[in-house]
Amino acid sequence: MSDKIHFGTDGWRGMIAEDYTFDNVRRCAQGYASYMIQQGKANDWFVIGHDKRFHSENFALAAAEVLAGNGMRVYLTDGATPTPVIAFSVVNKKASGAINITASHNPPGDNGFKVRNEFGGAIDPDGLKQIESLIPDTANEVKRMNAADAEKEGRIVRFDPAPAYIEHLNDLIDLQPIKDAGLKVLVDAMWGNGAGWFPRILQGGKTEIVEIHNVRNPIFPEMSRPEPIPPNINVGLSETLRQGADVLIVTDGDADRVGIGDENGRFINQLEVYALLAYYFLEVRQERGAIVKTLSTTSMLEKLGKIYAVPVYQTGVGFKYVAPKMLETDAMIGGEESGGYAFRGNVPERDGILAGLFILDLMVRLQRKPSELLTILFDLVGAHYYDRIDSAFSGDRKKREQMILDAHPEKIGGLKVTGLDTTDGFKFGLEDGGWMLIRFSGTEPIIRVYTETTHQDAVQEILQDGLHIVGLA
Known about the structure:
- By secondary structure, the chain is of the alpha/beta class.
- It contains 16 helices and 21 strands.
- The chain has three domains: 12-164, Alpha-D-Glucose-1,6-Bisphosphate, subunit A, domain 3 (Alpha-D-Glucose-1,6-Bisphosphate, Chain A, domain 3), CATH 3.40.120; 173-381, Alpha-D-Glucose-1,6-Bisphosphate, subunit A, domain 3 (Alpha-D-Glucose-1,6-Bisphosphate, Chain A, domain 3, 3-Layer(aba) Sandwich), CATH 3.40.120.10; 385-469, TATA-Binding Protein.
- The longest helix is centred in the N-terminal third of the chain and has 17 residues, at 22-38.
């Protein structure tokens, strides 16, 4: 009997060779195939892609063999491909879903298994539970078809997803003004799937694109993990200053998330980026529509929603909640604290490449540097300050959850507590309209404590109070 495989916030992740093995990848692929057969998609096409982690291309081929063995047909990407490009390919190819072999921003020793629906978006929580329940207990129960035979029969077809995606980008954004702007853009690909895309998309004009960390290296040197936040992007921030770049754009390991650094080598955090993107759509592009946000991201969005008279919907953490809500509300934009943002007109999936292009377009249209854009935003909604602490933990999670519920703090960081939201984690409202959230990671044994407040001097005290509440001070 093999160990049960559990899907977290965004599929399944594990340590390579420990629990992330070929047999377990095949078991997951069989669970996905069985689920799709139950959905009436037994003979349909599916897209399978992968990142640049150790053995990812071979894990992807193993998954393709399982789908072929179940009578399905597979479009297999011809190389490492950004997650948003895989998602777009589902729609472009009129496929019924996708499997993506990636651990996104996890440490180097991990790999992952993401699943997507016919819209290219995350499958909702109920669907994930059904897939999980259909994963066989052993690899002996998996149906497989040899890859060579499947390719001969046309059940596995390799393809290049780039041309169609780039053509699609031109429908969403006028790239020529960015090409002509004469900007110097530093791109940190974090050794991942984002490498080569910005130079290819923006070639042929005065704007110069300089890349770092743009080859395959699955141990991710100069960072602890390919997650686009400090300290992982500190090398990129230093290079921005050294090279005199106008902006730093960072894509994570599978290029579905983005990080931004300003011309002074300062990190513009994920909450600030989300608010800037919403401002760009509402004020610069004059678009209207719902905003979807996870409860762990910025309250600046509610303020923008009031100013521009658009609805703002809050969900649990993860695109398995964001994507369905975006489809339900025809949302203009959706996003989360991790630096993942999705946009109307594109697939309901995080897209770090498109988000980076939108930030460049905002700079070009307003003729402002990133630091100046932040000043414009704060003049509108007020300054907001954010930080988070990730802390490993051991022991019984239920006991720690009960500790939080029993705490009943009157003040956190010197600010009066106004309420507690337990939709996903434990979010304490604060008197200034800010918040402190304690949440257990869905993919790692980590407790995250986050805060956003209008009081800059209270940020660290709030975080330390959060750690104290959960018994980690």
